[in-house]
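Notes to self after the call with IL:
- keep both proteins in one doc
- input above output, always
- annotate only the second one for now

Protein 1:
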Amino acid sequence: MILTMDIGNTNIKIGLFDGDQLVQYWRLATKSTYTSDELGVLVSSLFQNKGVNLRQVDGIMLSSVVPTINFTVEHMCRDYFGLDPNFVVPGVKTGIDIKYENPKELGSDRICNAVAAYHDYGGPCIFIDFGTATTFGVLDRGGAFLGGCICPGLRLASDALVSGTAKLPHFELIQPERVIGKNTVANMQSGIFFGYVGQINYLIRRIRQEMGEENAQVVATGGFARLIADESKMITCFDGLLTLKGLRLIYQRNFGG
């Protein structure tokens, strides 16, 4: 089996694949204070809870946008799985043509998303990852990565609204029933949520226009993807496992299995 780990700014998503089938999925908080043993005990307990032996893992593929935790994760993999992990880094075979001015600047999670989006949905395709930051990626008909855009994530935007003002209170991120709120919290929920949906829809329209592909499908992934996808009629697919699927495909293209 192949273990995949998507190390993001907020969460570590873990997927265990048997062939092309995801058999287990877990999520941990990303903490730079983890020791390799603390992380190893957490992962071991997750495996034990599902009745899976750590030694059933034949290979490990990682994507990380948090360099400060990579050393810890590497040691955990060696100590608890007996394997050296493989990272998505420049030079790894992806099967896609990256038309970025400097491909080394492109986050490994976006590369994984591009690989999985083209494999599962084809092109032209716009994939959006709703994480700490919201990232857009654009694939043409041949699967080349053309670029994209990045904007603050939904949680980041709401936190900035509260921390940057003197009297506005903390509030729950939900989909309000109405745009016109009747109290301060409802006003904030409405402005953040519907304003964010409007931003997403506008960016999709502009990207489609620039591509000359008015019917390019739109795939959403990430923590807030479902919330936004339920309101935005321009999002055509929801795939919460896109990054982990991309990691599995990249492992396969480099090491087989």
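Protein 2 (the one to annotate):
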Amino acid sequence: MWCSVLKLLVVSGFFGSGKTTFIINAAKRLVAEYGLKVAIIVNDVGEIGIDDKIINSYGLKVKELFGGCVCCQLGEDMIKTLRLVDRRIKPDLAVLEPSGAADPSQILSVVSLAKNFELEMLPLIILVDATQLMLLLSEMPLTIRKVAFGEIVLINKVDAVSPEELSEVKKEVEKINRSAAIRPISARREEDIKSIIEMLKIKDGRVETKIRKN
């Protein structure tokens, strides 16, 4: 029976929070500077607007992004998709971007129930939009649940708010999740991406994480 270890990073957040921008910019740096082979797993490969070369490979809808990086479509069975990515693409790191409506706790629950499949889980990242968080907190209760599950919470789009507004957003995040590492960033800035990669202990072509066995 096939048994593998897949290094997996889950990057969650609401629609428009900047997940795709963060993931693509991080993947570019991981490929170019760290020499890693990266597979990005999303709900629709067409949402990744880099080029239009789409191929079908081993039952996966795969889009080639740039050297050492591919984008794969998430199937209805998440674990089956992860297995296929692991077996057929053999990435050094798989990055899962779930739908903006997805509940991170459900994703972690599915992963924990996987049989004969080991994952090295990097810290769960949640992105929040500094320009929209206060509105979401008042109108969408799921926002609180999503933020609460993050091991790293990235307050994105800091360049679009005032220092006072950013301080207010950060205080709200701290109220919801006191144990998370909270980092204000702009997903477009290279120095911010680099600092998050360093937090994840990705260096010298290796992904150093604690193994979570199922």
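Annotation: The domain at 5-207 is CATH 3.40.50.300 (Rossmann fold). The helical segments are 19-34, 78-89, 104-112, 133-139, 142-148, 163-176, 190-199.
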